[in-house]
Amino acid sequence: MSGSTPAASAPTTTQSSRWWALVVLALTQLVVVLDGTIVNIALPQAQEQLGLTDGQRQWVVTAYALAFGALLLLGGRIADYWGRKRSYLVGMLGFGAASAFGGLAQSGVELIIARGLQGAFAALLAPAALALLTVTFPSGRERNTAFAVFGTVAGAGAAVGLVLGGVLTEFADWRWCLLVNLFFVAIGIVGGLILVAESKADGRNRYDLVGAVTVTLGLGSLVYGFSLAEGGWARLDTIGFLALGVALLVVFVLVERRVAQPLLPLRIVTNRVRAGAFLVQAVIGSVMIGAMLYLSFHLQIVLGLDPLPAGLASLPMTVVIMIVAPIATKLLPRVGPRPFMIVGPLIAAAGLVYLSRITADGEYVVQVLPALIVLGVGLAFVFVPLQNLALTGVAPHDAGAASATANSAMQIGGSIGLSVFTAIYAAAVSGQTSSGAGQLESFTAGYSAAFLAAAIGLVVASIISAVLIRGKASDLLPQGDTPAVVHA
């Protein structure tokens, strides 16, 4: 069945300003993604200065991803209805203010609150940026190029965050991992005012408040339930929050089927190709947010690297992504996205399996570097087509909601992945400790278990792609002059 929606007002831009707008929007995506990992390298120093518990340490990462993912759908609809440029600018200002608050935090609670506020404003900023990109490059080869650039920047952002976090922690202070955002925010606001044209959905639009409440509480309860699993999957509070999260999400789906203007039009997620892309995006989020956190711990705690060397140690993955992505972009129109989406996760999984063989007395060059190179190749193949697939065939009216769903999948996947990996890590460490292993050996066993779990997730992502992402390359990557119609 075809979903028909009113056309959105499209921005009017010159050819050159469109590409400069892409630079600004890609920079925005870089900031949003790197802030998910930039504090990873700084966490050991921040934990010592602020007296964070291990649980609070995890929530410095989880608070950002959870608030981001849970509020993205609402943020997407606000962008559609209120105006994408306006939402972008307000999101930028709020993100900058929250970053300043976090950089000046004097306690673990303040830092966690600041990270949650960052995530909330990022939930307004990110879908507005991606929706602006969608309506600025509505179709054709230029759209594929724009999305390839945008996806590559997003993919490299997590690793860039690790490197930048290492530089700032080593030569300045961990607080600059948050304060540095003020420079990006200034560039984004000036560039947005000058280069980005306003666009929004036409017609009379009403917010789906019941849907917003049920999906936000449902996702929050689900992620919190997974975070409690570290203390045991059979605990009553773990089961209770997981069950409550599932129930609220079921209610959300029922609400969306009945309201006239849903927060998430179900036609966006019932399309088979887009559903597959969203699921893969969730798995990729778990790897980029969850697995990379444990890599930074291994580099600093077990291998004993200082913050800057630890950040630089993750750079090979970024370099490989930047090298492989242009090659993949050229091949994409010829072979189509499906082979990339099947093979890419398998290559990345092989890298993580290799990484899971780390030992406490191993060397970086032998045990970590080869894994990062292979991981970078696999992720590059996924990043290039992923954003485009997630938004293929979406009508301009739904651009914000679809963009929000794509981002939400990655952030919620990262939140759940981090919680699951933490539970697996804790169980492995406990088992090693009870058997008499040393502290570093126990930590290494925990990291290894987390990497192996992430590899299994990527294999599942490859299977999902093989089953759901089907069709001709011309259908999955439309080359015409007008956007494809939504098919549900």
List strands and helices in order, with pairings:
Elements lengths: L1 E2 L4 E2 L5 H20 L3 H13 L3 H29 L1 H20 L4 H29 L3 H32 L4 H4 L1 H15 L4 E2 L7 H20 L7 H23 L7 H5 L1 H31 L4 H7 L1 H21 L1 H19 L8 H4 L1 H23 L7 H36 L4 H30 L4 H4 L9 E2 L1
Antiparallel strand pairs: 1-4, 2-3
Keywords: Cell membrane, Membrane, Transmembrane, Transmembrane helix, Transport
Membrane topology: Multi-pass membrane protein
Pfam family, one: MFS_1
Helix residue percentage: over 70%
General form: globular
Query: Mean pLDDT across all residues, rounded?
Result: 83
Biggest β-sheet strands, sense, barrel: 2 strands, antiparallel
How many distinct helices? 20
CATH topology of the largest domain: Growth Hormone, Chain: A
Straight-line distance between termini: 5 Å
The CATH superfamily title of the largest domain? MFS general substrate transporter like domains
Query: What's the CATH C level of the largest domain?
Result: Mainly Alpha
Annotated CATH architecture of the largest domain: Up-down Bundle
User: Which regions have little confidence, pLDDT < 50, spanning 5+ residues?
Assistant: 1-12, 479-488
Give the DSSP E fraction (strand runs of 2 or more residues): under 5%
- Got a strand count? 4
User: Over the alpha carbons, how many angstroms does the gyration radius reach?
Assistant: 21 Å
Coarse structural class: mainly alpha
Major sheet: arrangement of strands: 1-4
SSE sequence, one letter per element: EEHHHHHHHHEHHHHHHHHHHHHE
Number of domains: 2
Membrane topology: Multi-pass membrane protein
Transmembrane segments: 19-39, 59-76, 88-106, 112-135, 147-168, 174-197, 209-226, 238-255, 276-297, 309-328, 340-358, 364-386, 407-427, 447-469
Keywords: Cell membrane, Membrane, Transmembrane, Transmembrane helix, Transport
Subcellular location: Cell membrane
